[in-house]
Amino acid sequence: MAYTAIYRKYRPKTFDKRIGQDHIVKTLINQIESGKIGHAYLFCGTRGTGKTSTARMFARAINCLHPVNGSPCGECEVCRALEDPSSLDITEIDAASNNGVNEIRDLREKVAYPPVSCRYKVYIVDEVHMLSTAAFNALLKTLEEPPEHAVFILATTEVHKLPATILSRCMRFDFRLVSAERLAKLIGDIFDDMGRKYTKEALMLIAKSGEGSIRDALSVADVCDSYADGTLTYDDVLAVLGASDTAKTAALVRAVLTGDAGGVFSVTDELAATGKSMGVLTKDVISCLRDLLVIKTTKNANAVLCLPEEKFKETAEIAALANAPRILRAVEIFSGAEAELKYTAHPRILFETAAVKAAKPESDYDIGALLARVKALEEKISALESGAPARAEKAARPQTDAPAMPKEEPAPEKAEAESGEKLSSHTAQEAMGIVTRGLRQNGELMLWALMQNMKAAIEGETFVITAASENDLKVLEKAENFAAIEKQLARFAGAKLKVRAQTSAKSAEQFDNDVDEIKRIFGEDIVIVK
Questions:
Q1: What are the structural domains of the chain?
Q2: Looking at the predicted structure, is the pLDDT value of residue 120 above 50?
Q3: What is the mean pLDDT of residues 416-423?
Q4: I need a surface site. Which of 138, 174, 230, 396 has the fewest CB within 10 A?
């Protein structure tokens, strides 16, 4: 006997086995039990949610002699007769291939004949949106006032294509997508019945791959059953789905979030060498970024993700590299690239461009990217003001356009002081460069970034740093920050450190200059300074 696919073998025959459409099942069962059977039903929803299966169940249930809780008993003579595909009382029509007006005219002629052995004659029209305009017009009158023994069940995945005249004549039921948890339970029950061993993470990945469609999920489960020899694992399902190597995808996302443009090109080249489609790779990257967002925003993240413990820890480490706005902006960039990949002749170039754009937020002037950069700066300043050590970013910090500084072994402070070099022998700009370079090499990246826009002066053997604001001054005056700068000045004999804010005189001078400029533009007789 030929092999029967899982989704066909385990197709539900009673309403209690129907999953994910409780609102529809309850309504249909109440109609069956009360005898209030309508003449036209419209089942609409995405593929694989059970429209045709429900239509068949309903057709048998309204004809069953002894329905059990609204479902067909499967034992009476009518149920046994309707299980025969040659039965004339339940007719299934594929509107995709029978969409002309002649087929509908033939249906109108046959609907007048009473059922052979049942109470109702049921017509199930699948993919009804494929009917031509003439066919819809031919169906209108029959659909509105059919014979008492006739029931029409129309099924479609694109309800928006149906004329309003058809919609107004039907009782409409919208089939919803099924949750991953319910799909995972269904697949687990089927595997248990088949004697297939599996892991919880593998089940959840199969369920998620169905994206709410029961048939899609069961089709993947069918392939997985044939693929795995022993216990079905998470990696087995990944192989069946043709997803990118998770380690490589993680490496690519890590390179994006750390601003490593070179790493982006390197990992992309490795994945392309394996024959990986840029469309599939983009989808995998978006999925990985989505997992990072869940970790950043959810307390019990793995309850949502259902990842193996090891993989969850690795994903959490990557999530720690960036804030939520930065990750969200990366998702937007790759989602836009996914849509554009359908129309480009150079998918790899488009993907790499999107990846580098996501990796270099400083070159992205989108408001989302700017917000992410502001958020990162706020976090850095907050860490400095609280006195907490800055997050180590040597291995994962974004690359900058500044040339890499050669690594130097820091010499002991005493040896530096004994060199006899005087601070006054250098210009203020040279001294500032020596101090900031030393801070960068020692991992004081937050302090280094803060001092980039500050001014310096040399007064004798005293190195004077002028902060741009009172807040910046408070940061510099913190004991640990002041000591870090002093440590870099230790190479100069007798050098001292002084920090101060901009003088009020300078601010007043700037204010006067601004007033003069405003008067020049608008006229002295209009501008009044208070």
A1: 6-175 (3.40.50.300), 180-241 (1.10.8.60), 252-375 (1.20.272.10), 417-505 (3.30.300.180)
A2: yes
A3: 60
A4: 230
